[in-house]
Amino acid sequence: MKKIFPILLGGCLLAAGQSSGQAKISQDSLTRYYSRLAKGNDADQQLLTQKMYALTKSKKEADWLTAARFFYQLKKNNVGDSIQKAAAVHFPTGFAARNNAVQVIYDETDPVKKEALYKAWIKKFPQDKQNKDVIIYDYARNNVGMAYAEADNLPKALEYAHSIVSLFWKGQGWVGTANRILKHGHTAEAKALLKMAIEDAYTFRTTRKHEEGAGFAAVGYPGYLSSYAQLLFNDKEYDSALVYLKRAEEAETPVRPEVNQMYAKILLAKGDYPQAFTRLSEVAAAGKLNPGSKAMLAEAYAKVRGDNHLEKYIDSLKGGLDDKMKAEFAKQIIKEPAPGFTLKDVDGNTVSLADYKGKTVVLDFWATWCGPCKASFPAMKKAMEKYKNDPNVKFLFVHTWEKEENATASAKKFITGNNYPFQVLMDLKDPATGVNKVVDSYKVRGIPTKFVIDGKGNIRFRFTGFSGGDDAAVAEVSAMVTLANQ
């Protein structure tokens, strides 16, 4: 799998190509100046374009990479890509060349060969003594360690896991190794790595929360706790597992579905059916049941209620869900003109947003490589089924940020292979700029992102991600469609 790296400047932003007066501007001030030009009017952006082309005449690579960076901000991705490619050739031992050369490590599958390639790469591009851009080296080291973990070479896997330098990334690296060595039955070693990750993330949530990268380092904390509790559950250490799940519950609101599911699983294993029943009923009332949690609710229901009316019980719990969602989303309604677009669908048909004037449109940006996007599709299918007889509601699924050469064929194969009745539009990269124009015009920063557009062409709702639970997702869409039409 190709590893994509950001433009890394090694801590340098240069003033080459500037006048002597401008050369005195601090690096931070110069960057802020460029950023202001990038967000300015046409004249500002033309001036920035001139300055960035001037930087490509510099003898310092960091100037070239600064130019590439700001061409990306100007939506001239093809120019930025060309500058990066040229920099790799012009500066054969520089940042761009280093980032390109590391790809051979990721492409190799044999761990021994991969390690040899890593050692050759780090010899040619030695790590800076001040650990600038150290994450690039950590990614490469971790990739070698993962290969050894997959091959069940435990000593080597642990060696590389403990070689991670970036403080904010240690926990994630340890958990990745733990997950892989677990496949080979190394539970004790996996537990140790997970325990380290938990305590590391906890410190970044508390005593180290002001350090650089603290937010990233801390974000995995609830998930690490849940994974550790699963291992304790597997070893029948139920009471200890509950201690860690309690910490996971206290760490975030709302509680993630896997925490609730693991909690219920332990309660059932302990024979505490009433508490399991109560907890799972709360999950059902929130519309967050999945096949696993529903099966556990059925088990608890049979013990507590002793009848065969489970589906009626679940429906009764969801009775207030629609009203709750309406009340919640009424606070989030917006009114912004929806950017128009014309795209081809996967069958070659031309589709425009203007075709649906007067209708409510649910617009879903997704990609085949996006796990949460695909996880939301069963719920989106149910939402479509709810409105199948309503000609005034239209669902459009826009595939964007493609990573494959034949993205259209890939998207069509996925949709048809899973029997999704979706109309999929292709937001392909513009040949002139390298930008996916539609997703860019909607200012999407992550997918899945969905929009609800009213009949007058205004965006009324924007929401990103998928929290799990088909019933909740359908209720969310239903609430937004209803509110958009009012």
TrEMBL record:
Keyword Isomerase: yes
Residue span(s) of domain Thioredoxin: 332-485
Pfam families: AhpC-TSA
Source superkingdom: Bacteria
GO BP annotations listed: response to stress
Keyword Hydrolase included in the entry's annotation: no
A GO molecular function held by the record: antioxidant activity
This protein's UniProt keywords: Isomerase, Redox-active center
Name of the protein in its database record: Thiol-disulfide isomerase or thioredoxin
Organism this protein belongs to: Chitinophaga eiseniae
